[in-house]
Amino acid sequence: MNPTRCHYFRELRPFLLTAVLLFALGIFAGSLLAAHSTFAGLKINESLGGFAQMFSNLPKPLVALMIFTNNAVKTLLVIVLGVALAIVPLVFILVNGVAVGVVLHLATQSKGLAYSILAIVPHGVFELPGVLCGAAIGMMLGGKAIKRLFRKSEFKVGFELSRALKIFATTIVPLLVIGAITEAYLTAAILGK
């Protein structure tokens, strides 16, 4: 890793930790929501089943492309819109955590813990770091924008977005590509789809 990238990730570290903690909090909240709200859980379970069914007959390369495009566009938007005081990345990471918590709880209840782990871990080890890194970058940009508002510190939007987009292209995109391919091929094979 080159020194510039190392410096960027050192600067990003507290925001990355915050993103991980918010995601974990979202998972916990989603699990509680699914455990205590049978009606909501059933509706979510039905909609997820319908969503998964849409992809079941598509060719694997197309599924991988669709998964990658979805994740890449959302992550890029979270980075760019982070400049607006970090609101979008914070909401994005919490909502995704809640969604994962609900899905994990429902899958564990209906199919068992092993199935739930196999459904998430193979592609999640690539996809989640990419998405969390994108959210962390968005939060860092938002934090710098807030400092600029209140402390008159230097914050050059173009320069900061340029740095962020380099990390997006060189670190996040490869993770999302590997995650999408893994989800379309390996996860689907493991789960028998």
Q: What's the helix count?
A: 6
Radius of gyration over all CA atoms, rounded: 18 Å
Listing every helix as H and every strand as E from the N terminus to the C terminus, the arrangement reads HHHHHH
Low-confidence segments, ≥5 residues, pLDDT <50? none
- The termini sit apart by 38 Å
Mean pLDDT: 88
Shape: globular
Folded structure, characterized:
The chain has 193 residues and is mainly α. Helices cover 90% and strands 0% of the residues. The protein has helices at 3-36, 38-56, 60-81, 87-111, 113-151, 157-190. The protein is globular, with a radius of gyration of 18 Å. 32% of the residues are buried.
Brief summary:
The protein is an all-alpha fold and about 190 residues long. It has 6 helices and no strands. The protein has helices at about 5-35, 40-55, 60-80, 85-110, 115-150, 155-190.
List the defining traits of the structure above.
single chain
Blueprint of the fold:
Elements: H1 3-36, H2 38-56, H3 60-81, H4 87-111, H5 113-151, H6 157-190
